Amino acid sequence: MSERIEAEPPAEGGAGAAEEAPLPLADGDAAGAPVVLLHGVGLDRTVWAEVQERLAGRRTAALDLPGHGAQPPLTAPATLGDLAEDVLRRMPEGRVHLVGFSLGALVAQWIAARHPDRVLSLACVSAVCSRTPEEAEAVRGRLETARADFGTSMERAVDRWFPGDVPGNRERRDRTREVLLANDVESYLHAYAVFASGDREVAPELHRIAAPVLAITGELDPGSTPEMTDRLADSIEGARRRVVPGVRHMLPVEAPDALAEELTELINAAEGVRHD
Q1: Chain segment 195-221, per-residue pLDDT in tens
Q2: Residue 141: how many CB atoms within 10 A of its CB?
Q3: Integer distance in angstroms from the first to the last C-alpha of the chain?
Q4: Closest to 34 in 3D by CA, of 10, 55, 60
Q5: What is the CATH number of the domain that holds 39?
Q6: Helix runs in 101-168, H state only
Q7: What confidence tens digit (pLDDT) does each residue in 36-47 have?
C-alpha cells in the first residue's frame, strides 16, 4: 500500500520567511523516490487524497502551498519564486517526482527549471501556460471579483469546476466550497495574483527543464485549456501531453484513476522501470 509522508507543523511567517527543515521521510518499504504533490490556489493538500490512495507502493507528500492550509497566511505580495523557494525548503531531501496542479504546476515548473538536481520527473496537471491577452484579462477579472466580493468569487469557482447537473458533483461542490471559504482573504488575493501572472514569470525558464515531463489537463477545462497544455508541451523538449476526455479543471478529484495511471507511467519511465 502507499505510504503518506505527513507534513511538519507550519512555520512562523510568510513566504520567503519560513526556514523549515526539509520534510523527513517516514520509514517503510515503499519503492522509489517520493512523490511530492502541490495543490492549486485556494485549495489545500487534501485535494490529493484520492490520487494518493491510488499511487500504491509509493511514498507521497502532499504539501500545503505558502498561505494555504496549515501554512501561515501571506501578508504581503509574493512572487512565484518566493512560493517555490518556500516549497523547496519543505520538500523531502533528495530527488523527487514533482506533481503540481494549477498554481502548484507553476511552482513545480519553477523548481524544476531552477533546481534540476531535485526533480526526477515533473507532472503539470491542469496547468496554465502563455495566456493569450483574452485569457490574461479573464484571470485578472476573476482576481478583481475576489477583491470586491470574495464569497461570490468562490461560488463562481465552484460553478466553473463542478457544474450542478453532473452526477457526484454535489458532494464535490460542498467539500471544495468549504476549503475555499476557509481561506484568509488577504492571503488568497496575494496567492491569486501570483497565479494570474506566474505563467509569464516562468515562461523564460521552461526551456531549462531537463526532467521527463507530463502535461495533462481535462478536455472541458475552461481555464487551463487543452490549448495551454499544447503550449506547455511545446515549450519543454520531450514533454508528453495528455487530455482526459469529459473532465473539467479538478482532475485530482474528478478523474483520480486516470491521473494516477498517467503519473505512474511517468514515474516508472523516469526510474527506468520496465513492464515486459
Answers
A1: 999 999 999 999 999 999 999 999 999
A2: 11
A3: 23
A4: 60
A5: 3.40.50.1820
A6: 103-114, 133-148, 150-161
A7: 999 999 999 999
